[in-house]
Design goal:
CATH superfamily of the largest domain: Carboxypeptidase-like, regulatory domain
Largest sheet: 4 strands, mixed
Number of strands: 30
Number of helices: 0
Distance between the termini: 34 Å
Radius of gyration: 26 Å
CATH class of the largest domain: Mainly Beta
Helix content: under 10%
CATH architecture of the largest domain: Sandwich
Number of domains: 3
Strand content: over 45%
Oligomer: single chain
Structural class: mainly beta
């Protein structure tokens, strides 16, 4: 359980992993106290202040994050924290060319803790170009461009900045010197596919022209879902998730012959086929739409069954899902009126 005050400068946040609620519980009055001061400065490589940088705390044990505060005109900030171990995070606000830096601190009772940040060289250079359709050469507007640093020349930190193309497909963003990757993400229903380019901004650069960046067309991916006996699987839900970018999901359903068709990018996707009924398992495979389609084998998998109950009574029509730690779906079913469920999932 975490309690996060909006004002991290005057109140600490609280995190507990020992909350145990089995019945109606009155927590009474929770006193956050004043905590201990954690302060420091956010400066560039010349020792000049970096105002309006966001600084916040992250609890190491749970990942819970406190409210951010902004550095003042002198680059100084103050946070309050209860004794414990934290990660202090300093970064620029959205759109600022200020990297994200972290350091681990231990806050001790009745002791003031200091954590300073050297953001390095904040000299920026404009990076610009135009996004066009590979087939027609026309400019594409509203393409979101996500710049992510692979490494920065003057500091061991990270930076991610986004922008969009205008009506002429033009983009322009100022970046720090270093190695970068740009993901170009068109709108969901666009006929063109996302793409990625890598480039380097040198410290001596006054600007970098990426030229005309071409987005490839989506391609028609056709395949057929079959079972272990090469029989078509009709009425199966098919979801193709783009890997990386924004993880767009493109969906369809197999026809009476098990066939399906999707417009996909010419790059690998995660394909999930969820057959109707409980006789076959949900199947997850990685496919490259630009290669040979072939068929998708939907196996019988292994049977998993059980009962969902509350205070001894079955819970009917509850949704049961089995997912891995990344959220990938492996099986799904609904409980019957008595709370029993039965499903099949791929063997591991």
């Amino acid at each position: 359980m975490s309690i996060i005050p909006h004002d991290g400068q005057h109140l600490p946040f609280m995190v507990t992993t020992s909350a145990d609620f089995e019945t109606a519980t009155d927590l009474g009055t929770i006193d956050l106290g004043y905590g201990e001061p954690l302060h420091g400065s956010v400066l560039d490589e010349n020792g000049d202040p970096v105002p309006s940088a966001m600084v916040h705390l992250r609890d190491l044990a749970t990942g819970a994050e406190g409210a951010p505060v902004l550095s003042n005109d002198e680059g100084r900030y103050v946070l309050r924290a209860s004794p414990g171990d934290y990660e202090v995070v300093a970064q620029g606000q959205a759109g600022q060319a200020v990297p994200r830096l972290t350091q681990v601190v231990s806050v001790v009772e009745d002791v003031s803790t200091r954590a300073d940040f050297d953001m390095g060289d904040l000299g920026i250079a404009p990076v610009y170009g135009q996004v066009v359709d590979q087939e027609s050469g026309r400019a594409i507007r509203d393409v979101r461009i996500r710049f992510s640093s692979e490494s920065l020349d003057s500091v061991d930190g990270t930076l991610e900045i986004e922008t969009e193309t205008d009506g002429d497909g033009i983009f322009n963003r100022s970046l720090l010197p270093g190695a970068w990757v740009a993901q170009l993400i068109p709108e969901y229903d666009s006929a063109v596919a996302p793409s990625e380019i890598a480039f380097t901004v040198s410290a001596a650069a006054t600007g970098l022209d990426l030229g005309r960046v071409e987005l490839p067309p989506r391609i028609e991916f056709r395949s057929v879902a079959v079972d272990d006996f090469e029989q078509p699987v009709a009425g199966a839900a098919v979801n193709a998730r783009e890997l990386g970018f924004d993880g767009y999901i493109h969906s369809t359903t197999t026809d009476s012959t098990g066939r399906f068709e999707l417009l996909l990018p010419p790059s690998p996707v995660s394909l999930m086929v969820a057959p109707p009924g409980g006789d076959l398992a949900v199947t997850n495979v990685f496919v490259n739409p630009a290669g040979e389609a072939g068929s998708v084998l939907v196996s019988r998998g292994q049977r998993v069954e059980g009962r969902i109950s509350s205070v001894g009574a079955g819970v009917g029509f509850a949704l049961v899902e089995i997912r891995d730690i990344s959220g990938l779906l492996y099986a799904t079913a609904l409980t019957d009126p008595s709370g029993f469920f039965q499903l099949r999932m791929e063997a591991f």
